[in-house]
Amino acid sequence: MNSYSFTLAGAALTLLPSGALLWSAEAMLVVSDLHLGKSERFARRTGTLLPPYETRETLARLDADIQATAPRTVLCLGDSFDDAEAAAALAEEDLSWLTRLMAGRSWLWIEGNHDPGPLALGGSHLAQHRAGPLTFRHIAEPGAEAEISGHYHPKARLAARGESLTRPCLLHDAARAILPAYGAYTGGLSCADPVLLSLMREDARAVLLGAPPRAVPLISLSGRPRASTSSR
Questions:
Q1: Is the peptide bond before 212 cis (omega within 30 degrees of 0)?
Q2: Which of 46-50, 60-64, 80-84, 204-208 has the lowest mean pLDDT?
Q3: d(C-alpha 221, C-alpha 156), whole Å
Q4: What is residue 44's predicted lDDT score, i.e. its pLDDT?
Q5: CA-based angle 199:200:206, to the nearest 5?
Q6: Which residues contact 83 (CB under 8 A, 6 or more apart)?
Q7: Statement: residue 73 has pLDDT above 90
Q8: Residue 28 located in a structural domain
Q9: Is 144 a member of any domain?
Q10: Which CATH number does the domain housing residue 61 bear?
Q11: Are 66 and 73 in contact (CB under 8 A)?
Q12: pTM over cut 0.85
């Protein structure tokens, strides 16, 4: 199988190879950190030009996931654009593409730290969203339960057969899930970083994107033992 299924607070969730999360019972597709317009922002701030294709690559991936899952709701979990000016500078062709994807379904924009949500576009603009037992927000809150977030762009590195492999990954335990970045030009934070280790419980798993996704115990990637957090 090319997907990975797990349960959080009784909700059955499926991680797709793209990094999107599907909640089938709610017909909801969740994506985080699209960072549309990253090449435009980079050029504007540094004067260095990058190939301006990341927005279309990200939209193409999102289009394919929507076609495959037919969600009633799409939830964008923050940092949908690289900043507010990047949202305003979206090419007309890309804006039309995004508008077409939004048509006929509920579209939720969660506020991120890079942007407040593309306010000129339709959909609902929220600081966070609660659905059933789950709370969706951009940045994980310490001690939260039944939480799905993004922001950190977690990545994991594995050594196999003398080679090192780095991939975006989803982190999850009994309390929360942290999604990988969905955008094409996004970097990442090692899942062994103390910030992420402090958020996750000792039984957490890192699920590396791929076909199929590969789940490994997070503690095996941390490089050091961690104190038990079972009391949280």
A1: yes
A2: 46-50
A3: 7
A4: 43
A5: 130
A6: 37, 41, 114, 115
A7: yes
A8: yes
A9: yes
A10: 3.60.21
A11: no
A12: yes
